[in-house]
């Protein structure tokens, strides 16, 4: 197993140094210079994911109750849906939907209680410090928090270091916005819109949305979506937009600069709903690695699927059986990899966030 000696934030590659090293500096990270370990007389081995990568089948609970018990206090979650990994500060930010709040947890001390950074003031749309359905969360490059609230038909922005008393600012009103993604290079905001079966983009410092996928009526054509749940823009490797097209049980890939006229390419699913290796059931989120491999949170099948480029079927990397045990998941939502390629999963039905350690690259 490759142990990370350094994580290059800009290109998300971890390097293994197995001989003597000295400490140096390298500039060029997205946010700041980072310490590196400089090899003497040897090139580093680059650790990247592959089609053969494997993860432990038993997870560790990072947030929430390991037995799946819900609750309103800082040690519990209730119907979590989205999350965001704040890598520089080693935090996870969770949209705790059932508690109408956004709460963050320090991964350096995962047993500690979370801190509410927005909401928690009741299930309502009356005030800008309240939520109805927290279905999307993200940070921009200035650490402003964006929250997609499908029940209030709006996206709110909160300042850095916000808390439960902080009022948000209305960024845009949309009819049933779902998952969101912010491109950290441009701060462009992408939103999956359930009601119009589309994905829109709102440029930085703008309040006008531009359609970048769908909006052609709900359907299964390649330029159509049907009730999409989440969106991911791969700014690092493929420069493409990936849409989890939930109602069609598939993931579509669109090129950068796409519009409502652009056809997508099916990169996962696309068959009828089911549990076969070539099927998805109520997919909730997706992401892509440096090899163009797509990972899908297959909510209805309680599993995370891996689809290779051009493949007509996927394979299960974790999950597949519903339950509360450490090797079980119940209706998965958002997924992500941290800098060590550990897989983090929102286990919605069990009111917890699970982490699966990588066992082979």
TrEMBL record:
Which residue intervals correspond to the NHL repeats? 219-257
InterPro entries membership = 6-blade_b-propeller_TolB-like, NHL_repeat, TRIM-NHL_E3_ligases
By its UniProt entry, which PROSITE patterns does this protein fall under?
A: NHL
Q: Where are the transmembrane segments?
A: none
Q: List this protein's GO terms for biological process.
A: proteasome-mediated ubiquitin-dependent protein catabolic process; protein polyubiquitination
What GO molecular-function term can you cite, just one? zinc ion binding
Entry keywords, A to Z: Repeat
Q: Which PANTHER family did the record assign?
A: E3 UBIQUITIN-PROTEIN LIGASE NHLRC1-RELATED, PROTEIN LIN-41
Write the protein's name.
Answer: NHL repeat containing protein-like protein
| Species | Adineta steineri
Lineage of the native species?
Eukaryota, Metazoa, Spiralia, Gnathifera, Rotifera
């Amino acid at each position: 197993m490759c142990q990370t000696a350094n994580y290059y934030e800009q290109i998300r590659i971890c390097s293994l140094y197995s001989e003597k090293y000295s400490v140096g500096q390298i500039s060029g990270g997205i946010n700041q210079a980072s310490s590196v370990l400089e090899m003497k007389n040897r090139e580093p081995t680059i650790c990247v994911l592959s089609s053969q990568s494997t993860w432990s089948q038993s997870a560790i609970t990072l947030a929430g109750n390991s037995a799946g018990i819900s609750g309103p206090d800082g040690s519990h979650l209730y119907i979590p849906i989205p999350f965001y990994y704040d890598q520089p500060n080693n935090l996870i930010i969770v949209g705790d939907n059932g508690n109408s709040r956004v709460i963050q947890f320090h991964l350096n001390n995962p047993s500690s209680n979370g801190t509410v950074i927005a909401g928690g003031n009741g299930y309502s749309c009356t005030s800008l410090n309240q939520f109805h359905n927290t279905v999307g969360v993200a940070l921009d490059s200035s650490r402003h928090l964006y929250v997609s609230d499908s029940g209030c038909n709006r996206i709110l922005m909160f300042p850095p270091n916000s808390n439960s008393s902080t009022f948000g600012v209305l960024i845009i009103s949309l009819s049933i916005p779902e998952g969101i993604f912010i491109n950290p290079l441009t701060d462009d905001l992408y939103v999956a819109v359930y009601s119009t079966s589309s994905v829109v983009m709102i440029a930085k410092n703008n309040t006008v949305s531009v359609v970048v996928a769908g909006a052609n009526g709900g359907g299964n054509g390649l330029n159509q979506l049907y009730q999409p749940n989440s969106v991911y823009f791969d700014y690092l490797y493929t420069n493409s937009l990936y849409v989890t097209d939930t109602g069609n049980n598939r993931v579509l890939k669109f090129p950068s600069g796409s519009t409502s006229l652009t056809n997508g390419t099916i990169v996962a699913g696309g068959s009828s709903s089911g549990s076969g290796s070539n099927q998805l059931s109520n997919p909730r989120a997706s992401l892509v690695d440096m090899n163009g491999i797509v990972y899908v949170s297959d909510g209805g099948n309680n599993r995370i699927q891996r689809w290779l480029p051009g493949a007509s079927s996927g394979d299960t990397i974790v999950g597949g059986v519903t339950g509360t045990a450490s090797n079980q998941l119940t209706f998965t939502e958002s997924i992500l990899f941290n800098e060590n390629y550990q897989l983090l999963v929102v286990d919605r039905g069990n009111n917890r966030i699970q982490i699966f350690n990588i066992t082979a690259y």
